[in-house]
Design a protein that fits this description.
- Helices cover 75% and strands 0% of the residues.
- The chain contains 7 helices and no strands.
- The protein has helices at 3-17, 20-38, 48-71, 75-89, 98-112, 120-130, 137-149.
- Helix 2 packs across helix 3.
- The longest helix has 24 residues, at 48-71.
- The chain starts with a helix and ends with a helix.
Length: 150
């Protein structure tokens, strides 16, 4: 079942359950999918990779908003963002642990033959594709930098 079909089925369930927060988050995801499908030059069907990018972007937006609301002491808005983030994360692949990220990046460094910090771009290109949706880009960049500097 594609992400779009899965989201539509979840929207129906949320409507029946009268779960407004879940419904709002699911509709936001559906909206992003529809925008991706209809943008100029888009293919008829979006790929699984595109779906993953959409979900990752939505999750990152919620995290960023939550940080801002927390800094401003807006617990009411923070709660909504965190609830929507949890719903979006249900559709993302399971996040990797620190050890798994380190092991994956070490394998990529060996695979690409990188040896110094100047090879960071080469490693990041491969790591970003392989770990997409499983690890945050900032975490990947920090790990790559640390491993290439050691």
């Amino acid at each position: 079942m594609s992400l779009k079909q899965n989201i539509e089925s979840e929207i129906k369930s949320a409507m029946i359950a009268k779960d407004k927060t879940r419904l709002s988050a699911l509709r936001a995801i559906k909206s992003l999918i529809l925008l991706e499908e209809t943008k100029s030059g888009a293919k008829a069907e979006i790929t699984e990779e595109d779906e993953l990018k959409i979900l990752t972007k939505a999750a990152k937006q919620r995290k960023d908003s939550a940080e801002i609301y927390e800094q401003q002491g807006r617990a009411d808005l923070l709660e909504v963002e965190m609830a929507e983030l949890a719903i979006i994360q249900e559709f993302l692949p399971k996040a990797l642990t620190e050890e798994e990220i380190t092991a994956a990046i070490q394998a990529i460094i060996v695979q690409t033959g990188a040896s110094s910090p100047k090879d960071m771009g080469k490693v990041m290109g491969v790591a970003s594709k392989e770990l997409a949706g499983k690890a945050d880009g900032k975490v990947i960049a920090e790990k790559v930098k640390a491993l290439l500097n050691s």
